[in-house]
Amino acid sequence: MWRTATVVAVRDETATARTITMEVPDWPGHLAGQHVDVRLTATDGYSAARSYSIANAPNSGMRVELTVERLPNGEVSPYLTQELRVGDQMEIKGPVGGWFVWQPQQTEPIQLLAGGAGLVPLMAMIRSRQSAGCAAPFRLLYSVREPEAVLYSDELRVLSENDRGVALTYAYTRSAPKDWPRAPGRIDASLIANTSWSSTAGPTCYVCGPTSFVERASNLLIASGYSPDRIRTERFGPTGEQR
Amino acid sequence: MNSHDYDYLDGNAAAGELSKIFVMDMTTAEGCCMHCGATKHFAEAHLYVKCPGIVARCAVCDEVLLRLVSIGERAFLDLRGMTYLRLDTSQLQ
Q1: Looking at the predicted complex, does its ipTM rise above 0.90?
Q2: In a mutagenesis test of the A interface, which of B1, B9, B91 is the best target, namely the one with the most A β-carbons within 10 Å?
Q3: Was domain A110-236 assigned CATH 3.40.50.720?
Q4: How far apart, in Å, are the Cα atoms of A211 and each of A142, A182, A217, B6, B8?
Q5: pLDDT (0 to 100) of residue B5
Q6: At residue B88, does pLDDT exceed 60?
Q7: How far is CA A196 from the centre of its chain?
Q8: Distances from the Cα of A109 to the Cα of A169, A196, A216, B14, B19, angstroms
């Protein structure tokens, strides 16, 4: 069932990513990690739909937030990140997906691995943890191109500086801040060993990012002793359907 | 490996399309691959979307589990790659 969502706020996160806050009447609520389908219809009837992860914590009433990364040759993301204005409407369907979710009743340690915009559903899990006041210890390993591409940087800084139970490690792939201890590069076995929960701690792991990142990250986790059935993955890429 | 070897998503990404057909969330359903016998959550299947419709392949043996093509008002669903689906019926309560 498609619902009409009204944009109530937009916020630029980086030069290419924007968070869109919508109000959705009769929103049934969601779980951290779920996604929605978004449908845009032009005046000539042409419509395009895409899937986006929900960024906000579940107990936000009728509010749904998406953080959209602009794709260079995208059909929908340039509109969402550049043209969309407060008061505009679009159709959304969901929430969908019950597998890649974290729920506040989970008490085990949580390992999050994000590749680029793959942070979005993992951020919903962190926000869900904070808003529910959960004690489950979280660790986030965030692989990102460069400091300027970091999503939610202020919020992440507050979380990691104040010992809120969320330990954060950045892994820059292309350029790092001056004097950063690790040379830019893809995540590797030593980084996993030094920053992630040991498999003996019984963690559940959530990995989200482009498919190449997810493959590499989950292979490194398995090599470090994680059981494949404790690793949940979400690969993303263009999911367009055209009608 | 080149980037073409990673030309897939996971079953999670089919949640929206499958919700048009099934009452229950199919990504948490466990399906048994008729080719290799592996039983895994549908969310873990490899999903190919750059084709007319969607194709889900077994994450273990890479054989086809499901095909779904929508043409106009008709949907064609081929599930013969799975011998069964185990569903969490508590969702229906």
Answers
A1: no
A2: B9
A3: no
A4: 15, 24, 10, 6, 7
A5: 60
A6: yes
A7: 18
A8: 16, 10, 22, 28, 31
Number of domains chain B is built from: 1
The answer to whether the CB atoms of A97 and B15 lie below 8 A apart is yes
* Lookup: tokens for A91: 């159709």
- The stretch A219-233 carries a mean pLDDT of 95
Rg (CA), chain B: 13
3-class secondary-structure state, position B82: strand
Distance (Å, whole) CA A130 – CA A137:
11
- Mutation site, A66, A93, A239, A242, interface B, largest B CB count within 10 A: A239
Nearest to B43 among A51, A100, A237 (CB): A100
Helix, coil or strand: residue A111: strand
Chain region(s) in chain A for CATH 2.40.30.10:
3-96
Phi, psi of B34 (to 5 degrees): -75, -15
CATH of domain A3-96: 2.40.30.10
State whether residue B39 sits within 8 Å of chain A by CB: no
Mean of pLDDT values over A189-214:
94
Strand arrangement, sheet containing A110-115: A166-172, A138-144, A110-115, A204-210, A231-236
Q: What is the pLDDT of residues A105-154, one digit of tens each?
A: 999 999 999 999 999 999 999 999 999 999 999 999 999 999 999 999 99
The model's pTM = 0.92
With beta carbons under 8 A apart, name residues in chain A contacting B60.
none
CA distance B45 to chain A (A): 10
Query: Which pLDDT score, from 0 to 100, does residue A100 have?
Result: 96
Among B12, B50, B91, whose Cβ lies nearest the Cβ of A234?
B12
- The whole domain housing B29 covers 3-92
Give the number of beta-carbon pairs within 8 Å between A and B. 68
Angstrom distance (rounded) from CA A84 to CA A164: 35
Q: What is the pLDDT of residue B92?
A: 75
